[in-house]
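Late entry, evening session. Most of the bench is empty. Finally got around to the prediction I had been postponing all week. Sequence below, unchanged from the version circulated by S.P.
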Amino acid sequence: MSLSIGGPQRHRRIRSVVAKATWRRIAGELGARINAMSYLPKWLILASVIGVIAGLGAVVFYEALSISTHLFLGVLAGYNVPTPAGEGNAAGSAHFARAWAIPLVVVLGALASGFLVFTWAPEAEGHGTDAAIDAVHHNPRGIRLRAVVVKIVASALTIGSGGSGGREGPTAQISAGFGSLLARVLDLSPEDGRIAVSVGIGSGIGAIFSAPFGGAVLAADIVYRDDFEFEALLPGLFASIIAYAVFGAVFGYQPLFAIPDGYHFNQPIQLVWFAVIGLLAGGLGLLYAKSFYGIVRLSHRLPFSKKLRPALGGLLVGLMALGLPEVLGTGYGWVQKGLGTEMLHTPLLIILALPLARILATGLSIGTGGSGGVFGPGMVIGAFTGLAVWRVLEPFAPGVGHDPAPFVIVGMMAVFGGISRAPIAVMLMVAQMTGSIALLGPAMIAVAIAWFIVGRSDDSIYRSQLRTRADSAASRLHFGPPLLATLSVASVVDDPTVLLRDHTTASEALQALREAGVPGAPVIDAHGTYLGTVDIDVLAPLAEADSTLPVAGVLDATTTTVAIDATLDVGLEALTQAGGRWVTVTSKSRHVVGILAIGDLVRGYRQALDTNVGKIAQVTAHAVAVEERVGRHSKLIGRSIRTAGLPAGCVVITVQHGNEMLLAAGTTTLAEGDVVSALTSPQSVDTLRHLLRGTAEP
């Protein structure tokens, strides 16, 4: 009996091993081909694949959310939510058939979401777009597929049961997660990995909102507060239009919202009222961000399990909904009502309360650990803000008109365009979502004012955004030490001290790492193909719990690698993403060929400096990269960069201090022998070099 059972099991294991090895070989060959391509064909392929997955992901989540909404609110609570014109324009229920069930249903969905998220993928809590932005800047390979799956289900539960959230967060994480997967499987460079995740964010959001142009611009606009990722724009256009085509093939290509009578700008006085919307939008946007993260901090201090916290938020939202049903779900159907005449008879006090109610409901639904986006609620808050301004002004103000739609649309653009710090992308998206391109010009005044107010407060709903590309380690390294780009990883790589097989047990791996005195090691399969890495700090407690656990079950497949034929500037970026200690070096076939540690990089760099110190490289017509050693007689010794009196416009990128290479800050203190890499104007090159050397200018 044991032989008859063991035989099939053994054959299944063998087939599984062979299938995995074949897949890795195919992925390695495909990755080598794609990485060898020039920019245009490479991104035409990658963006197209990301676009297809973004469109399919949007379809899957839309269906999941529709089923969840029908089950929780429709069947259990007996309440039908209104829908926008692009989704049937259903009027929704006039009242609650079972009012007592509304809070219970919202609690049930939030409770299920909390247990799912905090049991299987804690990183899926909150709004997924911010997590994807963080991955762009710190580890493009780090989005786990498990987190994507959990995000889909948890967001459908949270929003479908009545929680206030947007459906763009899950769709952004689906396509960004696929971009992260491509970066891992195809061994994309750190730069290409960042672009892939950025493109995933924009194409996913553009698909679910049927706004491909806005999604393409969003891919480049959303990762920085005051800057633009130009490299993501062209791939974003490819991916977004394909994602839109896939999503539209299933659900149609009509705009999400419809304006009953269209819009034509013929009242210049309206610019004054739009400026008023901009002032309110800036303040409400700040309130939205601060209250949301205030609720997040308060939630973390609650003295009970994280799994139960979303249920508390759901209970409060459900109780709010008994008086204000507009806070339930996505709220897009209520925006459609606001664009028409269906909310004209709603009491003014209710209209004025709706923006604040939606802000609170979103914080309680998502900020307590629920899952969903904050983009959609931000636009709904803006729509209610514009409607409130119109209702107040319409009885007496000149040029307001009898149609609330322009005010509603401008409010949508201004509130979230300001607090997202992505004003251009949000304006384009709302214009496409409402079919109101004619409003782009007049709305600019409101969006500009809101953006200025938020910018002065230096806040954003996306806390993972960096201010500019100058704050990105990747961008600073790109303009960093010019000698790095002249050296190859192959010239400094070391053989791996420890190389683990996937069947090695956790206790054996831990012993090997401790004996070798290394912090971690790469893991390979039977064919020598790279699988991931293990870290000694992660491995130690797991080995104590189960010493027979194979390392294949605990390895991290998301860690960054670097190709053997890459240059050292790429190697330094990979080291930065990997935590700054070491990174695995792989061949084109994904075999491990060595380890690159920061010490290896510094030693190779110092050898190059011995013959090239003082090197100057022209970066642009107005900027020159300079590398110079701080001399014994330099007046800069012991002074910080901020107080060193460097030439105007000079930007110090890195300082090599002994065996340590530092990304420069204003507080970095210079010492004799330090090698300084900086950007300066061509006219200031000699002055800077003499300051650093401590020699007199001729």
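Two things to note before I forget:
The longest strand covers residues 623-629.
The chain has five domains: 1-27, 32-251, 270-469, 481-603, 613-693.
Will write this up properly tomorrow.
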